[in-house]
Design brief:
Blueprint: E1 19-23, E2 28-32, H1 35-45, E3 50-55, E4 59-60, E5 69-70, E6 73-77, E7 82-87, H2 96-112, E8 115-119, H3 121-124, H4 128-143, H5 149-158, E9 164-165, H6 166-172, H7 177-189, E10 194-195, E11 207-209, H8 212-216
Parallel strand pairs: 7-8
Antiparallel strand pairs: 1-2, 3-6, 4-5, 6-7, 9-11, 10-11
Helix pairs in contact: 1-4, 4-7
Length: 217
């Protein structure tokens, strides 16, 4: 289990595009060292299948190989699966130093029986609507990462019979719009409801629903 990053502050080459954000998922500030790392964190923070994560979690050192490399992120899923991640722009993948860096990481993961992923902007920014929606949704979690139980019950109860737009929910429920958005945002990020935020921008036209398995449960 990784809880403390190796690198926390802005130093040297890590000074460019340095982001400090608060994670409701792990309840601490997170340091990210590029715009692409920030976008990746947004997706991890909002992913209901991710239990926990740590940025800059460990240094890959492999005997017989030159150089070392610090992973950009470690993720543990709710299924117990662990993944070590390196985040790079596609154009940098042919750079000799980057190739060596990723090679060391892959070797370390093989030795320790861990999974290794390289994620680029093609993975992280493949759906700009989805990514922008997550950026709009996350502030609602930071305002209140645990929604009022009555709000949760109100929203869930209206979805038992099928999909509804937020405009319709706002008319049916005695909730202010900010409170409705907050409840829906939290339910999306806990995986209790689904939404078409991969296709439409988050707002009154957003549609939300429950899985059939959730309804039966």
């Amino acid at each position: 289990m990784y809880t403390t990053p190796l690198i926390k502050s802005r130093t040297g080459r890590y000074g460019n595009n340095h982001w400090i954000v608060y994670s409701s998922k792990i309840e601490r500030e997170v340091n990210l060292f590029s715009d692409l790392e920030f976008d990746h964190w947004v997706m991890v923070e909002a992913d209901p299948t991710v239990e926990t994560f740590c940025e800059q979690p460990d240094k890959a050192v492999v005997e017989g190989e030159k150089g070392t490399s610090i992973f950009d992120m470690w993720i543990k899923g709710k299924d117990g699966k662990e993944i070590f991640i390196e985040i790079k722009y596609e154009k940098d993948l042919k750079d000799e130093q980057v190739v060596k860096q990723i090679g060391v990481q892959k070797s370390w993961c093989e030795l320790h029986g861990k999974e290794h992923h390289v994620r680029t902007e093609k993975d992280i920014r493949s759906n700009e609507i989805y990514l922008e929606n997550l950026k709009d949704i996350l502030p609602y979690l930071q305002n209140n990462s645990t929604i009022v139980e009555i709000d949760r019950h109100k929203v869930i109860s209206q979805l038992k019979d099928g999909r509804r737009a937020l405009k319709e929910l706002s008319q049916l429920l005695n909730l202010s719009l900010p409170r409705l958005y907050e409840a829906v945002a939290c339910l999306i990020c806990t995986g209790e409801i689904k939404a078409n935020i991969d296709k439409e921008y988050f707002g009154l036209e957003t549609e939300v629903w429950m899985d059939e398995a959730e309804k039966l449960g």
